[in-house]
UniProtKB/TrEMBL annotation:
<dbReference type="GO" id="GO:0016192">
    <property type="term" value="P:vesicle-mediated transport"/>
</dbReference>
<dbReference type="GO" id="GO:0009306">
    <property type="term" value="P:protein secretion"/>
</dbReference>
<feature type="transmembrane region" description="Helical">
    <location>
        <begin position="119"/>
        <end position="140"/>
    </location>
</feature>
<keyword id="KW-0472">Membrane</keyword>
<keyword id="KW-0812">Transmembrane</keyword>
<dbReference type="InterPro" id="IPR008564">
    <property type="entry name" value="TVP23-like"/>
</dbReference>
<comment type="similarity">
    <text>Belongs to the TVP23 family.</text>
</comment>
<feature type="transmembrane region" description="Helical">
    <location>
        <begin position="57"/>
        <end position="75"/>
    </location>
</feature>
<dbReference type="Pfam" id="PF05832">
    <property type="entry name" value="DUF846"/>
</dbReference>
<protein>
    <recommendedName>
        <fullName>Golgi apparatus membrane protein TVP23 homolog</fullName>
    </recommendedName>
</protein>
<keyword id="KW-1133">Transmembrane helix</keyword>
<feature type="transmembrane region" description="Helical">
    <location>
        <begin position="146"/>
        <end position="165"/>
    </location>
</feature>
<dbReference type="GO" id="GO:0000139">
    <property type="term" value="C:Golgi membrane"/>
</dbReference>
Amino acid sequence: MATRTMIGSDETEDVTLNFGEEHEPKKTLRHPVAVFFHLCFRVLAILAYWLCGWFSNSYIVIFVIVVFLLSMDFWTVKNVTGRLLVGLRWWNQVDEDGTSKWIFENRKVASGSVIESQIFWLSQVVTIILWVVFLLGSLLMWNLTWIMVTGVGITMNASNLYGYIRCKIGAGTNMSSAASSFLGKQVLQSMFTSQTQNEATSSTYH
């Protein structure tokens, strides 16, 4: 059962920011195909931008390829992998009177596993960081033609990340503090999990 937070209407319900805690503590991939396509298009877009000089000298061709891959990634994450891996969904709804509403849904019991949740969120953040690095590189070299490409990459990935964070936190929570809390929590959780596994391995050998 999904809980909704509707922006632009009186029907709101805040959702606690518990990234990955709603999943069963299993490390298996329940949706390997969804995980593959969640990573596939964004990785291909980054590689196409990074290695573009090896394949073509045409800016138009490279621009079309990168934007196409970014568009496929945006659609896949927004409409498929977010729902399957973390139980979240967001979209814009226009009522008959022309009123536009942003709807953010959070399924309390998600179908994905812990590892799928971590892959989903960390890949979102890491991808944006990479595109920001590419943007800074374009600015430093004053390569104005590539600034547009990196801007599209940042915009599309940031839109999905923003939408899914809103699904998690609801309408009334500070976005910047929630995002910082999320990233720190994921890093600490990964470190704790690795340390626990190492201790378990050591005790087994003893």
